[in-house]
Each structure stands twice: as C-alpha cells, then as structure tokens.
Amino acid sequence: MSKTAKWETAGCIFTLLFGTLLHFLYDWSGKSCLVGIFAPVNESVWEHLKLIFYPALIFSFVEYYFLRQETNGFFTAKSLSLILAMSITVCAFYGYTAITEKNYLWADITIFSLSVIISYIISCLYSRNKFSGNLVGTNLMLIFIGLFTVFSFFQPDIFIFREP
User: Fold this and answer.
1) Rounded Cα gap, residues 57 and 34, in angstroms
2) pLDDT tens for residues 129-154?
3) CA-to-CA distance for 2 and 128, rounded, in angstroms?
4) What is d(CA 6, CA 102) in angstroms, rounded to the nearest whole number?
C-alpha cells in the first residue's frame, strides 16, 4: 500500500469517527453558536454535510504535512473529492426519500459512510495526478467554510436547508 493510500485510509477512518461524534456536539455544547459553525444545528441535509466536510478538512491539514512533497495539487484533489462526497450525499438522500417517501436512519448512515469512503478513494486517485496547484482547492474550501458559517444561522427557505 502506498504512503498516500495509507494516509487516505487513516483519513477515511478519522472522518467516519469524528463525523459521527460531530453529529452530537452541538447539543452536547449547550447549543453553542461557535460549535454550530462546525456541527449540525438541525437535521437538515445541508447541516449534515458538515459531518463530511469539517472532519475531512481537519485531517487534510495533518495529511498535507506528510504528503506535501508527493502531490502538487493536494487541496484541489481534496476539494473535488469533498464536493463529490457532498453531492453523493444530497442525491442519494433525496433519491431514496423520493422513492420511499420516508427517511431511514440506517440508510442515512449508509449514505454518509459510502460518501466518505468514495471521497477518500477519489482523493487518493486525484492526488496521484499532480494538479497544477492548490489555489482552486483552497478557494473552494474557503467558500464552503463561508457558506456553512452563514447558513448555519441564516437558512434560506430552500428544501436542502429544511429538516426532513
């Protein structure tokens, strides 16, 4: 197993575990506004995307320290894989609930887990492609941080921000 694959596997495990803990953190914190930036503040699909994004982002900084010499566009690869994971989550959730007209906890957990696993597989593959830089990826991550921060407290009246 390559060094990159080992780090991606560790990141996948970290994201699955930390993302699961993050689900409960807002309530455990007494509904702290600061914690609400990083943890879901309600049961909407949008808020649950934080369970993928922030653990992967945190792990990315650690991973980058050890892999920076082996990739050129590390954060671009990470951003693309995270966007894919969040897209899979949204599409799979609304796809199965459109068919069943109900949501199931086991299905939601499965979607979360598969999205994270696919994200890290894609990240591992993209990391080998040596993108031309990190500017695009860094900007995408900053945009998502801004969106998660603003929409945690000012949710638009759009389906993805509503609790199912």
Assistant:
1) 17
2) 655 667 788 899 999 999 999 999 89
3) 11
4) 38
What residues does each domain of the chain span? 3-153
Task: Give the whole-angstrom CA distance, residue 34 versus residue 47.
Answer: 14
Alpha-carbon distance of 3 to 50, in angstroms, equals 27
Backbone conformation region of residue 102, classed left if phi is above 0, alpha if psi is from -120 to 50, else beta: beta
Interior angle at CA 123, CA 146 and CA 85, nearest 5: 55
Beta carbons within 8 Å of 12's beta carbon, 6+ residues apart: 116, 117, 119, 120
Tell me the whole-structure pTM to 2 decimals.
0.91
**Tokens coding 77:** 């690869």
Cα separation, 44 vs 66, whole angstroms: 35
Q: Which residues contact 22 (CB under 8 A, 6 or more apart)?
A: 38, 39, 40, 50, 51, 54, 55
Mean pLDDT computed over 14-28 = 96
